[in-house]
């Protein structure tokens, strides 16, 4: 379908391809054990599991937000143990939350310098809906070689956001639901509202309610207003669902997006 999104049918046809590694990223913010339990109950054959808290983030500190970026060397070791060879293996990530967690792995792999990564369109639901096989058997480790080549320019910190957000050539994008952006509701963080100067592009607009990617023409249309900006800084609550908007930007042919990894939860830690 696109470079970064593949269909359940394509994945079914490539289940036995040694150059494809599948990663289950299902997770629930309200129950951190839920995703791993779901994997152990039923998953796509050959899939490995990566946990948002344990694998795709590092432990929380005073600053850095609720899901700080993981230690890149540790993540590289985990990827190698799944048989991922740097720059060669296609990694296919899926979840059941409209790319919310799988896109975090998509972004992280590209941050590590590995561009061969795609998301399963429609996620776990699409796979089940097609009647494709599932298993409860964990996938055994296999040897791979993964030496990251970090793209440090893909991420920004709070000081960079503060210094650059009001420049005429920069757009600051808040990816959260509109009521959180407006400060009408704040279920998690100590402060309600948004970073001054941010515009709101809710991440759920990237897919339909079933988790299928909206047409590429719609992705381009979404960003038409800020396409001319030289730099686009993207944040959400904790640097996870912002990755769905960064995917949308790439699909729209806009490669100027950068992740404010700490996002609103980091910003709050300095002002609350």
Strand content: 5-15%
Query: What's the rounded overall pLDDT mean?
Result: 96
Percent range for helical residues? 25-40%
The class by helix and strand makeup works out as alpha/beta
Report how far apart the termini are. Answer: 44 Å
CATH class of the largest domain: Alpha Beta
Helices, by number, come to: 10
User: Could you give a short account of the major beta sheet?
Assistant: 5 strands, parallel
* CATH level-four homologous superfamily name of the largest domain: Rhodanese-like domain
Number of strands: 10
Shape: globular
Description:
By secondary structure, the chain is α/β, with parallel strands linked by helices. The protein folds into 2 domains: 5-129, Oxidized Rhodanese, domain 1 (3-Layer(aba) Sandwich); 152-271, Oxidized Rhodanese, domain 1, CATH 3.40.250.10. Helix content is 28%, strand content 13%. The protein has helices spanning 8-13, 34-41, 72-80, 102-111, 123-129, 158-164, 178-181, 216-222, 242-251, 263-271; strands at residues 5-6, 20-24, 48-49, 90-94, 117-120, 155-156, 170-174, 199-200, 231-235, 257-260. The strands form 2 sheets. It has a 5-stranded parallel sheet. Strand 2 (20-24), helix 2 (34-41) and strand 3 form a beta-alpha-beta unit. The radius of gyration is 18 Å and the shape is globular. The mean pLDDT is 96.
């Amino acid at each position: 379908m696109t470079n970064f999104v593949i269909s359940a049918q394509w994945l079914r046809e490539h289940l036995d391809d040694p150059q494809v590694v599948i990663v289950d990223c299902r997770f629930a913010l309200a129950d951190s054990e839920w995703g791993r339990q779901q994997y152990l109950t039923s998953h796509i054959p050959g899939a490995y599991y990566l946990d948002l808290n344990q694998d795709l983030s590092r432990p929380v500190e005073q600053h850095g937000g609720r899901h700080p970026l993981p230690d890149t060397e540790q993540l590289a070791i985990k990827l190698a143990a799944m048989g991922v060879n740097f720059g060669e293996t296609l990694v296919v990530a899926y979840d059941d939350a409209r790319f919310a967690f799988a896109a975090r792995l998509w972004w992280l792999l590209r941050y590590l310098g590995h561009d061969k990564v795609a998301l399963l369109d429609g996620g776990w639901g699409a796979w089940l809906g097609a009647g494709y096989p599932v298993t409860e058997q964990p996938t055994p480790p296999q040897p791979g070689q993964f030496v990251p080549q970090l793209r440090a320019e893909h991420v920004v910190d709070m000081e960079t956001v503060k210094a650059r957000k009001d420049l005429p050539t920069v757009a600051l994008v808040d990816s959260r639901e509109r009521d959180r952006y407006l400060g009408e509701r704040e279920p998690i963080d100590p402060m309600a509202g948004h970073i001054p100067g941010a515009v709101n592009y809710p991440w759920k607009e990237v897919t339909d309610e079933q988790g299928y990617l909206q047409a590429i023409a719609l992705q381009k249309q979404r960003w038409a207003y800020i396409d001319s900006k030289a730099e686009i800084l993207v944040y959400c609550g904790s640097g996870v669902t912002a990755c769905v908007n960064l995917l949308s930007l790439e699909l729209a042919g806009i490669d100027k997006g950068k992740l404010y990894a700490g996002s609103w939860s980091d910003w709050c830690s300095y002002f609350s």
